[in-house]
Amino acid sequence: MDAENKNEVSEVGEAGAVSGGAETDGPKPRSVRVVLLALMIAMLLAMLDNMIIGTAMPTIVGELGGLEHLSWVVTAYTLATAASTPIWGKLGDLYGRKRVFMTSIVIFLIGSALSGMAQDMGQLIGFRAVQGLGAGGLMVGVMAIIGDLIPPRERGKYQGLMAGVMALAMIAGPLVGGSITDHWGWRWSFYINLPLGVVALLAVSAVLHLPKPSRDGRSARDIDYLGAALLTVGITAIVLVTTWGGTEYAWGSAVVMELIALGVASLVGFLFVQKRVAEPVIPLHIFRSRNFTLMSVIGFFTGFVMFGAVLFLPLYQQSVQGASATNSGLLLLPMLGAMLAVSMVAGRVTTGSGRYKAFPIVGSVLMIVGLFLLAQMDTGTSRVTSGVFMAVLGAGMGCLMQITMLVAQNSVEMKDMGVASSTTTLARTLGSSFGVAIMGALFNSRVQDVMAERAGALGSAVTERSAQLDAASLAKLPAAAREAYQYAVASGTHSAFLLGAVVSVVALVAAVFVKEVPLRGAGGSSVGDASGKASAEEMVRA
User: Fold this and answer.
1) Residue ending a domain, choose from 176, 210, 244
2) Transmembrane stretches, by residue range (predicted)?
3) Is 117 helix (H, G, I), strand (E, B) or coil?
4) So what's the pLDDT on residue 396?
5) Residues 424 and 334 in one domain
6) Are residues 190 and 233 in the same domain?
């Protein structure tokens, strides 16, 4: 444990050395708070961007044209973020978290500035990819730096704050994006990142000082470039399949089948390469830890459910309950508010007790119950009732969102903190892609079937191009067709949420098998261990 303790010692500005974080009681050094604020800003930038851009897209298309390429403005960002996530984590482990994190901020700001200056849709898509490349490093860097600064015993409450940032981004994003676009123009949807990013960059540069990682003779020549390329191709193919399948191309089309084959072949090749290189992008030995593997599974299904809910709940409330789309972020307030509150409580309880196994189990149960309740909504469900159902789901996700990262980081050695953080983040990202695709396909199919049953040829014609109608299109429908569509949307959300409840059972099974290994405390001490120490071997094997 001695070598590991040395790695946990992190210096923060002039406050001196922080041995894996300050004590549980008492105020944190001022410079630690400054760093944490900078990390929260960076996380906000990565999470807020897509939410802001969504509301600005009609204005962007009106000025730049290129409506047929509209989806690529979001897809390019998502692809670059997902593909770069594991690579950023590995670079942080090799070359030091601070340097790599600052590089990702700079790349994100360059992408933001270029996106704001784009003169056509092609340029905007390319610059959004640059922005997404930086965003992948922001998300991984935040979690890995917290892992360096704060010992697992205390880390829960700080990662709970990061969950709060995520909830804030989802609520405030559409509001901020609409306001900026209306008053300053769509280009400021990108330029607004610059002052915030510069503040984060300066704060990190001035007060964050982490020990340099031990290279042990490793150099840039040892980096697994082939593995990185194969993983990038594999992730890109997966995200494109889940993005295009059932929308741009039929699920059985040649394009989708070719992408699936390419993705599978690339990932199989990636696993083959990882076993044979000195510095693998994702060291396969981290999956020998039962807890780490289980947390990756739980994170995948949490992402699957969360982003599916974020997509379909506003659609249901706007189409069936008649809610306004203007403040769409506020429609999710019951779910996101419960997620934020429970996440922060879970973090503090974990910090106080050092125990965490109950949270994945309780969170999975609440997630299943919440999704089942949401699946019972129909055309007569009130907003109060649906709000209560959303709060149950949000409470479940609040138990899971940051505990998965905490336990995953506690299950590996300090030298693998970056790849552990990036792999867990990637699992959640891929889960969200699959969730949106599979739940979306089920929703669309159900809506089209019900419309054909209840409105005949008119119903089929209405949903022929898309099962999701905007407010303007819905208002133009005859009363009978509108009622049929509302019933169809309620039926579609029933099927989608019921599927979410079923797949969440896998997360519950995984949670049951989690082994509660004592969390390392400040200075490396672990909770529940009479000697105050836990061996690295115990933590890796758990």
Assistant:
1) 210
2) 34-57, 69-88, 100-119, 125-146, 158-176, 188-211, 223-244, 250-273, 294-316, 328-346, 358-375, 387-407, 495-514
3) coil
4) 93
5) yes
6) no
Q: What DSSP character marks residue 510?
A: H
Report how far residue 133's alpha carbon sits from residue 477's, in angstroms, rounded to the nearest whole number: 42
Q: How many domains does the chain have?
A: 3
Q: Which of 131, 90, 441, 79 is nearest to 238 (CA)?
A: 79
Rounded CA separation 495/439 (Å): 8
Read off the tokens for 138. 């922001």
Does 162 or 134 have the greater pLDDT score?
Answer: 134
pLDDT, tens digit (0-9, with 9 covering 90-100), for 334-359: 888 898 888 888 888 887 787 888 99
C-beta of residue 415 within 8 angstroms of C-beta of residue 472: no
For residue 372, give every residue at least 6 positions away whose Cβ sits within 8 Å of its Cβ, in sequence order, or none.
497, 498, 501
In this structure, what token pair is assigned to residue 434? 């699959």
Any domain includes 5: no
Residue 215 lies in a domain: no
Q: Which of 138, 139, 124, 141 is nearest to 76 (CA)?
A: 124
- Domain identity same for 244 and 347: no
Residue 465 shares a structural domain with residue 317: yes
pLDDT in tens, 236-267: 898 888 878 877 788 889 999 999 999 999 99
Range of the domain at 396: 288-517
Cα 430 to its chain centre, rounded Å, is 9
Burial label for 195, CB within 10 Å (0-12, 13-18, 19+), is: exposed
Q: What's the CA gap between 358 and 333, in Å, rounded?
A: 25
Q: 484 in helix, strand or coil?
A: helix
258 and 370 share one domain: no
